[in-house]
Write a structure and sequence with these properties.
By secondary structure, this protein is an alpha/beta fold. The chain contains nine helices and five strands. It is globular, with a radius of gyration of 20 Å.
Length: 249
């Protein structure tokens, strides 16, 4: 596997980036067996996978910090793919969790604003993937709430309303969409095994997410070259020809 032409940019090697932006389900995704870790493993020597997950965050806060994560720079430095994965906190019941709750219409506007901001910094819609929140297992999550001294603060039916809005935003804005809320409940299957505590993903849930996300990511990165040659293809007597060059050797 020789290094492909165009894989080296100037005097330094610039690795393409895949940006994962979301709440705790993204933040925890780099733990062993997590969907982010699986992406990073699949894309090693091709892309850097950046975890920008923020536990507890909603779209109101995400919209504020997104310009700190991606700025308008040389287009070659823009992410080749961006996932936006919020809604599990936005969909909290207002009376029980007012700090994280975001009204449905505002959630819609925030997602639209983030897609529009990415477009303004030269990350077009075809590089963006929206993910709906996964379904909520109310019985398991209620146990977690009781342990924390509070009442059940989320309902699966309400999460479903946010998932539908996320799906509609993707259709309106022209982005890809991964509708986890629907897929995990397809054919009325028991989705509780996909969740570790009723809200966050279990190992099975991480595997499920990765298996459905990978085809969407792959179509955005499949044309990218492998960076640096396979070890057997390195020039033996003058390795710098292979390792420092700008094309095939």
């Amino acid at each position: 596997m020789a290094v492909s032409e165009g894989a080296s940019f100037g005097s330094s090697l610039l690795w393409p980036r895949v940006l994962l932006f979301g709440d705790s389900i993204t933040q925890f995704s780099f733990q062993q067996g997590g969907w982010g870790a699986s992406l990073a493993d699949r894309l090693v020597r091709k892309c850097d996978v950046l975890n920008r997950g923020f536990s507890g965050y909603n779209t109101k806060w995400a919209k504020i910090i997104l310009p700190r994560l991606i700025r308008k720079e040389n287009s070659i430095e823009n992410p080749v793919a961006v996932t936006i994965f919020f809604g599990a906190n936005d969909s909290s019941i207002k009376d029980e969790n007012p700090k994280q709750h975001v009204p449905l219409d505002e959630y819609r506007a925030n997602l639209q604003d983030m897609v529009q901001y990415l477009r303004s910094v030269d990350v077009p819609e075809d590089r963006v993937i929206l993910l709906t929140p996964p379904p909520l297992c109310e019985a398991a999550w209620e146990k977690e709430c009781v342990l924390k001294g509070c009442k059940l603060n989320r309902l699966n039916s309400i999460v479903g309303e946010y998932a539908k809005v996320c799906l509609q935003v993707a259709q309106d804005c022209g982005t890809d969409i991964l509708d986890l809320w629907t897929l995990m409940q397809k054919d009325n299957q028991d989705f509780s095994s996909y969740l570790s505590d009723g809200l966050h993903l279990s190992p099975a849930g991480n595997e499920f997410l990765f298996s459905h996300l990978w085809p969407l990511i792959d179509k955005k990165v499949s044309s990218l070259p492998w960076l640096l040659p396979y070890w057997k293809d390195v020039e033996e007597t003058k390795p710098e020809l292979s390792l420092l060059g700008d094309g095939d050797h």
